[in-house]
Write a structure and sequence with these properties.
Blueprint (H helix, E strand, L loop, with lengths): L6 H48 L2 H9 L2 H14 L4 E6 L4 E4 L16 H4 L4 E7 L2 E11 L5 E10 H40 L5 H17 L3 E5 L5 E4 L1 H6 L6 H4 L4 H4 L2 E2 L12 E8 L2 E12 L2 E11 H40 L3 H25 L3 H16 L4 E3 L14 H20 L8 E6 L4 E7 L7 H4 L19 H11 L3 E6 L5 E8 L12
Parallel strand pairs: 12-13
Antiparallel strand pairs: 1-2, 1-5, 3-4, 4-5, 6-7, 6-11, 8-9, 9-10, 10-11, 13-14, 14-16, 15-16
Helix pairs in contact: 1-5, 2-3, 10-11, 10-12, 11-12, 12-13, 13-15
Length: 541
């Protein structure tokens, strides 16, 4: 079974293995350099001693006389003060006159094969196997007054002596390496543990997965999200943020830039005084776009690591509010219809309790005749059940307010354009009818009817709503479909309906015409094609 090691253990083992290899190489290199330096130093020391001994006048005289006793007496003092392994004096025929270690070598040949150059008057350093073993030695010629070679001085250090010196050096190196390894073991373990703690005890694969998940989540969020560090430099920014703020640069080019260079905010959303506390759903302006923004501090162990800023377009909130208001109006229409039905039922029940059956029958026939007629007309002319329900609700709502909703006899709708869904169609018709009824109610009673025409008889859907209301003021005619623009006195909840209508029509590649309705009022005419063509991209709204 394969054992799976954690990141901390893997990192520790890698650091230890690398440290061992590195220290081993460093130790071997250091040992090699020290060994070479030791050989150079001992060779130079042997050469200096050999040359100095060869220049001693009494030694030169003793060699000329071939007096081994005098040579031995002289060299005894010198040998006592020298650290060399041996000192040898030879004649001009390379025969021993003196050996510091073996006195019985007198007259025997000097071995090693390196005497020729010395007898020619040169000083040498060599490694040879002599009479007592392999050694590093230096030989110098002994010259008489006429500069003739009369003898040889050999000063040497045995290899065993050099090995002992190297062994002490190697022991020191190994000891230092062991101490360094112990220190590196401790350091590696603490480093790997600290890194793992900073990684929240996660494995690299888990961190990589979290990074990919974070990136996917940021891109999936509908709201704009920007994270900045304590110096207000951008750490991350998602696609929604760049799209909302119309930032054309790739996300990679925005990383590291100060937030103030990318976003101009009003009021100062990134000021030092503002950053001291979190904020939620604050209305402000980012790069001339009105947004609802939130700012939350990133804290780690009570240390500020930065901020996360999320924001969304304020117009989206307004649009959602309008759609919710539309749903509320649908509910109000159902409430009105229920209220009328309860009144009708109560009246009928009263007549039946009084046993006035003939009057009850006439009342049912009277009430049913008009309701059944409009119900039959709507259900036969429009294939969408939701649209039928909307129109019945708007009819009853307008009737309760004292306004008649009149349908053109040529109305019909069998198919909704592909670029428009059922909800958007209901929003268009519902908003136009609401505006027409409200405009009519602003005129004195009795109120004239609101007329509705819906037809799909041609290659486009035609919707026309005409009222005899107050009409459209000249100062708002050019901006009528902009968000927030309204002709009503109470502007708190208005200014969105026509903006939604224009948005849905533009999305369906349609057009809107607004004209006056003589003698007063307005006519809204909508044209939505069933098949969109490239040439129709220039449709006006």
């Amino acid at each position: 079974m394969r054992v799976k090691l954690s990141f901390q253990i893997k990192l520790f083992l890698c650091l230890v293995a690398f440290s061992c290899l590195l220290l081993t190489l460093i130790g071997a290199y250091t040992y090699h350099q020290l060994d070479a330096q030791l050989h150079r130093d001992l060779g130079a020391r042997a050469q200096v001693q050999a040359r100095e001994i060869a220049l001693i006048p009494s030694l030169v005289s003793a060699v000329e006389k071939n007096d081994p006793g005098q040579i031995a007496a002289l060299m005894k003092k010198i040998r006592a003060s020298s650290d060399a392994s041996y000192i040898v004096i030879g004649d001009n025929r390379a025969r021993h006159l003196y050996h510091s270690e073996y006195a019985n070598r007198f007259g025997t040949p000097m071995v090693g094969g390196d005497n020729k150059e010395v007898l020619e008057g040169k000083s040498i350093i060599s490694i040879r196997k002599g009479g007592i073993g392999i050694s590093l030695r230096s030989k110098a010629p002994i010259l008489d007054e006429n500069n003739h070679v009369i003898g040889i001085v050999s000063v040497g250090y045995l290899k065993s002596h050099i090995d002992n010196l190297n062994a002490r050096t190697l022991t020191q190196i190994v000891g230092s390496i062991v101490l360094l390894l112990i220190a590196l073991f401790i350091f590696s373990w603490l480093l790997s543990k600290n890194l793992k703690r900073q990684m929240f005890w996660l494995e690299p694969k888990e961190i990589a997965l979290l990074v990919r998940q974070q990136k996917a989540l940021l891109e999936a969020i509908y709201e704009g999200v920007i994270a900045v560090d304590p110096q207000l430099r951008i750490i991350t920014i998602n696609h929604a943020a760049r799209e909302l703020l119309d930032l054309r640069q790739p996300a990679s080019t925005l990383m590291g830039r100060e937030i103030g260079e990318v976003i101009q905010s009003q009021p100062d959303f990134f000021g030092a005084s503002q950053l001291r506390h979190d904020t939620h759903d604050e209305v402000c302006r980012f790069n001339h776009v009105r947004v609802i923004a939130s700012r939350v501090r990133i804290m780690q162990e009570d240390v500020l690591q930065g901020w996360v800023i999320s924001f969304r377009d304020k117009n989206d909130i307004n649009t959602l509010s309008s759609q919710l208001s539309q749903v509320k109006r649908y509910a109000d229409n159902l409430r009105i219809m229920r209220h009328e039905q309860l009144n009708w039922t109560a009246t009928l029940a009263g007549l039946l309790h009084m046993q006035r059956y003939d009057e009850a029958i006439r009342y049912v026939e009277a009430q049913s005749e008009g309701a059944q007629e409009i119900l039959d007309f709507i259900s036969q002319r429009f294939s969408s059940a939701a649209l039928c329900g909307l129109l019945l609700g708007k009819y009853s709502s307008a009737k309760e307010k004292g306004v008649e909703l009149r349908f053109d006899p040529a109305c019909q709708l069998r198919q909704i354009p592909a670029a428009l869904n059922e909800t958007e169609l209901m929003s268009i018709i519902g908003n136009l009818l609401d505006n027409a009824v409200e405009a009519t109610l602003h005129c004195d009673a009795p109120h004239e009817a609101v007329e509705l025409y819906i037809s799909d008889s041609s290659d486009e859907l035609v919707i026309e709503v005409a009222d005899r209301g107050t009409g459209i003021a000249a100062e708002v005619r050019d901006t009528l479909f902009e968000q927030g623009v309204t002709t009503k006195d109470d502007k708190g909840d208005h200014g969105i309906g026509l903006h939604l209508v224009a948005s849905h029509v533009a999305q369906a590649h349609g057009s809107i015409e607004v004209s006056d309705n003589d003698p007063h009022g307005a006519i809204f005419s909508l044209f939505i094609p069933y098949e969109f063509r490239a040439a129709s991209n220039n449709a006006e709204v």
